[in-house]
Amino acid sequence: MFCVDEGGSVAECDRLDLPKEMSMHAFSGGEHPVDVADVLITAGCGEGFKRRMAARGIRVVTTSESDPLTAARAVATGAPLPPPDRDGHGDGGKHQ
Predict the structure, then answer these.
(1) Which of the 8 DSSP states describes residue 61?
(2) Residue 61 falls inside a structural domain
(3) How many independent structural domains does the chain possess?
């Protein structure tokens, strides 16, 4: 997780290492550790995931930017990010 301080500096402030059953795809409801986030940055996701995050008050940003700090800084400053891969899955169009 990245935090923005009062001066606008972005730095990693915490890390969420969750067990598989706490993945958002497997999670069935209630409070979740990700609920502390305002924004979730990902290489790709579906509309259902975006709706689930919006219901938790979390904005989802998709991008092909591979450096997490660069992406977090861009979101914090409102700078543009490169769009996600065409298929929106972040895998370069290669489904495994």
Answers:
(1) E
(2) yes
(3) 1
Phi, psi of 54 (to 5 degrees): -60, -35
25: in domain:
no
Q: What are the pLDDT digits (tens) for 6-22?
A: 999 999 999 999 999 99
**Domain of 70?**
1-15+32-89
The tokens for 2 are 């990245």
40-62 confidence digits (pLDDT tens): 999 999 999 999 999 999 999 99
Does the model's pTM come out above 0.85?
no
Within-domain flag for 95:
no
71 exposure class (CB count in 10 Å sphere: 0-12, 13-18, 19+): buried
CA distance 60 to 20: 21
